[in-house]
Amino acid sequence: MLVLTLVATSASWASDELLYGSKVNWNDVDLGLALSPLYYTEFAFWDKNDDRILGANEVVYLHINTGVNKVSLNDVRLTDYDIYPAGSQVGDDPDLGKTLRMFGTTPTPRAELRFYDVLGDWAYNLEDPIYLKIEPGNIKSSDIRITNYVGFPPGCRVSGIDPEIGSDTETLPGRLCFLNKNGNINNAGYAMYDEGDVIYIDFQEPSYVVTINDVRLSRSET
After folding, report:
1. Cβ-contact 199, 216 below 8 angstroms
2. Residue 182, number of CB atoms within 10 A of its CB
3. Could you report the per-residue pLDDT of 28-61, keeping only the tens digit for each?
4. d(Cα 92, Cα 101) in Å, to the nearest integer?
5. For residue 12, what are the contacts with CB-CB under 8 A and spacing of at least 6?
6. Contact 175/150 with Cβ under 8 angstroms?
7. For a designed S-S bond to 44, which of 100, 124, 168, 195 qualifies (C-beta 3.0 to 4.6 A apart)?
8. Are the CB atoms for 184 and 146 separated by under 8 Å?
9. What confidence tens digit (pLDDT) does each residue in 159-212 have?
């Protein structure tokens, strides 16, 4: 595990600059800040009708594995739920404690973050949208957009008439990390992920630093 490096910054945290699904760009307030690795995460969904298949109105989460298959504090919603937008952390909300089904448990396919190589240059670029692939293969309906694409916002599902349907996807070369905004650490001196921290897909070297093209996988509430 990596101890969080403290980085001084005078920049204010503007919530409109730290939106779920946004990519880090030049002059963003978080560019260059230190990240900490995020361990023990799983993609899961609230299987409301217990049919073991992701339904159109069922909420998808990044579950911070607490040893229980239930929606837990500070899990991140990857799709909207009621008044709670995609990218929001779970608090003392109506979905807290609901039973989760992990992707990758029979008969549910394994979910995976992948990107659509729009330019066809075999590289991940700022222009390339990212998806949570619910089923293997090319882009299908029910896959979830993590970043926007031609007007479709992060957190929405692909439908059968959308322009990218059927397109090939590529493996996303990143790791999940978080920005320890409140500076909390545990007894061993390691950064603790908790309320208000922002999760990123961290791509480029140097590792564990916010760099251009990293993706915010949750939203800042402050």
Report:
1. yes
2. 12
3. 999 999 999 999 999 999 999 988 889 989 999 9
4. 20
5. 29
6. no
7. 100
8. no
9. 999 999 999 999 998 899 999 998 999 888 899 999 999 999 999 776 899 999
